[in-house]
Design a protein that fits this description.
- With 215 residues, the protein is α/β, with parallel strands linked by helices.
- Helix content is 36%, strand content 29%.
- It has 6 helices and 11 strands.
- Strands 4, 5, 6 and 7 form a 4-stranded mixed sheet that branches. Strands 8, 9, 10 and 11 form a 4-stranded mixed sheet that branches.
């Protein structure tokens, strides 16, 4: 697919999705890399635009140059954003109480502290990026406490064996310092997602590289 067609496909997908105002977003494509520019009314809309572009077939990567611009009468002070962020984190049952610290500067939220699981790190960022007044989120949460590579490997392998849809013996799990690599073969592409879910759901996992191939 050439870049001109890919650009048009991204524009069409942005226009199709009601979660963004496509008229305010410009798209450029070079060698499969899409650059998004323009202005949006919330950080949640900025995140949505990136996800929309990434799901278009042929897109290899997305560069973000979209700016979040709030009307003057709708701007929220940093202290208020921080208070709301702490409240929404406290209300989220997935997140540990008192382990996430929030800093806000000019609407940009920085999350620090430690959580036990990757999904908690993701959940914290997801919780705050929808707040009014947020212009960006830096997620510096650490996955802790550390878990040995052997324990991570064993727990993932045990989880894979519990899934009836998977041929667990055909999947190899390699772990180094919280970095998980899945290798081997699966019968269908959706099984990759099942295997990835098993890995991400394991305590101590910081990243997952999926090298599984179709039989």
């Amino acid at each position: 697919m050439n870049d001109l067609q890919l650009r048009q496909d991204i524009l069409d997908e942005l226009a199709f999705d009601p979660g963004v105002d496509a008229a305010k977003i410009a798209v450029a494509v070079e060698r499969g890399v899409a650059t998004l520019a323009g202005t949006v009314g919330s950080y949640a809309e900025k995140v949505a635009a990136e996800k929309i572009a990434l799901r278009v077939k042929g897109v290899l990567a997305v560069a973000q140059d979209i700016k979040v611009v709030y009307p003057e009468d709708k701007k929220t002070g940093d202290a208020e954003i921080a208070r709301r962020a702490l409240d929404i984190i406290a209300w989220d049952a997935r997140l540990p109480v008192g382990q996430v610290q929030v800093k806000v500067q000019s609407g940009w939220v920085t999350l620090e502290g430690k959580v036990d699981w990757q999904f908690q790190k993701d959940a914290a960022a997801e919780a705050v990026h929808r707040l009014s007044g947020v212009t960006g989120v830096s997620n510096h949460l650490l996955i802790a406490p550390p878990v040995s590579s052997d324990d991570i490997k064993r727990n993932i392998e045990n989880a894979l064996r519990r899934y009836a849809a998977l041929e667990a013996d055909a999947i190899r799990v390699e772990v180094s310092g919280g970095q998980v690599t899945l290798e081997g073969k699966v019968s269908a592409w959706h099984e990759r997602g099942i295997a990835e879910h098993a890995a991400w759901s394991t305590r101590g996992v910081a990243s997952v590289a999926d090298h599984l191939a179709l039989k």
